[in-house]
Amino acid sequence: MIQTPVRFKKGIAIELRKKGLSYSDIQNLINVPKSTIAYWLKGVKLSDDQVEKLKKKRSEIAKSNSQKRAAKILKKTEEIKKTSAEKIGSITQREFWLMGVVLYWRERFLTGSDHDLQKGVRFTSSDFNLIKLFLKWLQKIGKIKNEEIAFDIFLGENKKNIVEKIKNYWSKKTGFSKGCFPRVYFYKISKIKKTVKNRNIKKTNYGLLRIRVKASSMLARQIFGWIEGIKKSL
After folding, report:
1. Number of folded domains in the chain?
2. Less crowded by CB within 10 Å, the N or C end of the chain?
3. pTM for the whole thing?
4. Quick check: is 21 in a domain?
5. Residue 105 class from Cβ within 10 Å (0-12 exposed, 13-18 middle, 19+ buried)?
6. pLDDT tens digits, one per residue of 45-93
7. Cα 126 from Cα 124, distance rounded (Å)
8. Is residue 130 part of a domain?
9. Which stretches within 89-216 are classed as H helix?
10. Within 10 Å of residue 57's Cβ, how many Cβ atoms?
């Protein structure tokens, strides 16, 4: 293989640089370490237009590389999520029971209140998946009938004009008729934002939904007993 003299390569590098090529482009063309190219070209000045073109190119390359990395991470994340989801398999009755108890425990921790011992079971969330889980838990574990369940919706005052849309949303997600959502409470925007932040609840366009179990203080006491049992086993 014929080797190109170093002096000749240096001349090529200088000419390429004068044409506005980047160090990386020159390196790819003449196969010389970038540190050597930088040393050869330290006295070569570029025009303002060439400098701007190089900046734009570097920016485009950085953006492209960032998008590629993001796509790679997203693909890997989806693969992990799929594999993890498949490992869950079927959930036993005991596992489902414990899931509901811990979920309710978290609810009580967020509100910092033991009023449920007198007022009955209540659960609030903006996440329809958690709402569906707790409703199913009430029905399967608590043996609560649908007619024993009531709902309250909490919204920012700026959503007064879309109440029917929000009722339709929660009706569809829960499987309960729209007539089961008669009570809607409005908060000032600043207050609802504070509530969402304090409860670590994802902000949505559909507000917060509270599940109330009518005359369920006995069930609430039973749940609190289960929570105490979990605490003792830790």
Report:
1. 1
2. N
3. 0.68
4. no
5. middle
6. 888 899 899 999 989 999 999 999 999 999 999 999 999 989 988 999 9
7. 7
8. yes
9. 93-111, 116-119, 128-140, 163-174, 189-198
10. 15
Q: State how far the Cα of 78 lies from the Cα of 69, in Å rounded to an integer.
A: 14
Residue in the structure block whose two tokens are 């659960």: 123
Note whether residue 16 is domain-resident. no
- From 204, 215, 188, 179, select the one nearest 124 (Cα to Cα): 204
The three-state secondary structure class of 136 is helix
Q: Scanning the structure block, which residue is given the tokens 């086993």?
A: 233
Spatial distance between the Cα atoms of 204 and 197, rounded to a whole number of angstroms: 12
- Summarize pLDDT for 122-176 with one digit per residue, the tens: 999 999 999 999 999 999 999 999 999 999 999 988 888 999 999 999 999 999 9
In a domain, 45, yes or no: no
Which residues in 156-194 are b (16+ Cβ under 10 Å) and which e? beebeeeeeebbebbbeebebeeebbeebebbeeeebee
